[in-house]
């Protein structure tokens, strides 16, 4: 394990996993610009974290989680300055929170600091082994294995993509996985992808074998690499599989060009779902899956982030959305039967068809609802990074749903330096659904928590004009204290 270096050469989760499996005691110090964050380990387990950012402080965490209101927060911070006591002691003495609330708030603070570090792609890291400054920290039982896995799962795709090795990298599994898996439980997809890691297959070949799509496969591989369960084992130089492995036209790679992107998108306007996937009407579910994953590998927008097609992202997204709708419809028995009936009932698919459009919209809305519900589960479990990703997908699939925008904004509000983005989404949700009083309340509270009292007052006053008898709005104005 390297005890110091540049973060760009080692993703932070890898660094923490090395400390954990080495059962080391000491302090991980990470810095960039004026930010300094420390994570304290005892025998490889995270027991506390520190940050010099105000947004990462315990008081802010308690305020953000609703354990303190703003008046209590300001008063307790003032008492800390006057007495020199720790914030926790002040809060307990004043009976503002219970010891249990204090522990939960401190754990949330540690989680937020640790998870924020997983997204760092620059800066410096070092590990200072030795006794911990026990007078400065409050040891907590955090469950480091689960903390690592949860934080990694919640990372945005762009972070994962930048941390993965090239697609032609061969991966092998660790000789002894026992220390790495201690306290960590992989999900079914991750276990399946791990079974493909054999020291011979490249990342690209593992994607070809997988049936969960490139996006999910690459995220699973990132988890395995970050946990040190898999590691790079050289580069595969051959660019195409042996002829014996090419079984039919679906296995033959097709080069994506600007012209082909435009042609595919144009054809899709008049194609039925079978034509979009280039399969016959009697195709098996396995054949449909194979066709879909082949096309997804070619046209998934995330595969072209750093290519000459960056200006065609909207067209790639449209192609990918269409083939995904086709796949969703044809791989479920009931929806495929209904779709087949529509095809044989005399509908001319060369013209715009309301029924097809309705099916497509219905598929999008179902997928959006699934993403939204997954986001709610993450949000309730305080995995705000996972929630943000799910809510973002829900909005992309169904941008007309104000509640999806609203919750996307709520998730972003829990993240450092995302105030502007969060406020923008909440404002848009209000414009789409001006009857939702809670939207105004949350936007005003967001501004208030970040010291923007005048903006908060404007939001509450607008709400009061629309709903002059709302007790919620009146109370929010009173709490603002302006």
Cα Rg? 26 Å
For the largest beta-sheet, the strand count, sense and barrel status come to: 5 strands, antiparallel
Please give the count of helices: 23
Terminal residue distance: 54 Å
Please, how many domains? 4
Shape summary: flat
The assigned structural class equals alpha+beta
The percent range for strand residues is: 5-15%
Which regions are unreliable across 5 or more consecutive residues at pLDDT < 50?
A: 239-253, 346-356
Helix content: 55-70%
Summarize the structure.
The protein is of the alpha+beta class and 482 residues long. It has helices at 12-21, 58-64, 70-83, 87-93, 99-118, 144-153, 157-163, 178-181, 188-196, 203-209, 213-226, 258-268, 273-277, 285-299, 313-330, 333-344, 354-380, 384-397, 402-412, 419-432, 437-449, 453-466, 471-480, and strands spanning 4-6, 26-32, 35-42, 45-51, 124-129, 169-173, 230-235.
List keywords for this structure.
23 helices; 4 domains; Arc Repressor Mutant, subunit A; five-stranded antiparallel beta sheet; alpha+beta; 482 residues; two-stranded antiparallel ribbon; Helix Hairpins; single chain; 7 strands
Helices and strands, with pairings:
Elements: E1 4-6, H1 12-21, E2 26-32, E3 35-42, E4 45-51, H2 58-64, H3 70-83, H4 87-93, H5 99-118, E5 124-129, H6 144-153, H7 157-163, E6 169-173, H8 178-181, H9 188-196, H10 203-209, H11 213-226, E7 230-235, H12 258-268, H13 273-277, H14 285-299, H15 313-330, H16 333-344, H17 354-380, H18 384-397, H19 402-412, H20 419-432, H21 437-449, H22 453-466, H23 471-480
Antiparallel strand pairs: 1-5, 2-3, 2-5, 3-4, 6-7
Helix pairs in contact: 1-6, 2-3, 5-6, 7-11, 9-11, 10-11, 12-15, 14-15, 15-17, 17-18, 18-19, 19-20, 20-21, 21-22, 21-23, 22-23
């Amino acid at each position: 394990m390297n005890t110091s270096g540049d973060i760009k050469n080692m993703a932070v989760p890898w660094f923490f996993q090395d400390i954990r499996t080495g059962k080391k005691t000491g302090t991980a110090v990470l810095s960039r610009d004026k930010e300094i964050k420390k994570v304290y380990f005892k025998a490889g387990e995270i027991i506390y974290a520190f940050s010099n950012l105000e947004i990462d402080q315990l008081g802010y965490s308690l305020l953000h989680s609703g354990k303190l209101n703003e008046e209590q927060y300001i008063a307790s911070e003032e008492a800390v300055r006057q007495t020199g006591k720790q914030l926790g002691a002040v809060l307990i003495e004043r009976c503002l929170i219970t010891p249990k609330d204090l522990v939960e708030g401190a754990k949330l603070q540690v989680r937020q600091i640790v998870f924020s570090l997983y997204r760092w792609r620059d800066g410096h890291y070092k590990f200072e082994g030795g006794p911990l400054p026990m007078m400065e920290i409050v040891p907590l039982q955090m469950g480091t294995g689960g903390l690592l896995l949860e934080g990694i799962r919640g990372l945005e795709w762009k972070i994962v993509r930048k941390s993965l090795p090239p697609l032609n990298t061969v991966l092998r599994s660790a000789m002894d996985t026992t220390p790495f898996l201690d306290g960590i439980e992989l999900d079914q997809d991750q276990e399946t992808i791990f079974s493909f890691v054999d020291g011979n297959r490249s990342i690209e070949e593992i994607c070809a074998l997988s049936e969960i799509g490139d996006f999910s496969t690459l995220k699973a591989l990132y988890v395995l690499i970050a946990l040190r369960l898999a590691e790079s084992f050289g580069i595969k130089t051959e660019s195409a599989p042996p002829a014996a492995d090419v079984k039919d036209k679906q296995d033959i790679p097709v080069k994506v060009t600007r012209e082909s992107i435009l042609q595919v998108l144009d054809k899709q306007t008049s194609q039925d779902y079978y034509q979009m996937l280039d399969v016959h009407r009697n195709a098996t579910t396995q054949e449909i899956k194979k066709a879909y994953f082949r096309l997804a590998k070619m046209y998934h927008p995330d595969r072209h982030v750093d290519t000459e097609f960056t200006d065609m992202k909207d067209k790639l997204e449209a192609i990918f959305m269409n083939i995904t709708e086709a796949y969703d419809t044809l791989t479920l028995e009931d929806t495929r039967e209904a779709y087949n009936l529509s095809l044989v009932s005399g509908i001319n698919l060369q013209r715009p068809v309301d029924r097809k459009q309705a099916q497509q919209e219905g598929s999008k809305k179902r997928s959006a609802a699934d993403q939204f519900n997954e986001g709610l589960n993450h949000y309730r479990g305080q995995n705000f990074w996972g929630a943000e990703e799910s809510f973002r997908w829900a909005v992309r699939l169904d941008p007309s749903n104000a509640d999806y925008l609203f919750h996307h904004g709520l998730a972003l509000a829990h993240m450092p330096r995302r105030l502007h983005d969060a406020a923008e989404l909440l404002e848009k949700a209000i414009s789409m659904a001006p009857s939702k009083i809670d939207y105004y309340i949350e936007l005003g509270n967001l501004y208030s928590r970040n010291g923007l009292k005048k903006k908060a007052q404007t939001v509450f006053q607008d709400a009061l004009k629309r709903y002059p008898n709302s007790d919620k709005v009146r109370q929010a104005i009173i709490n603002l204290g302006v």
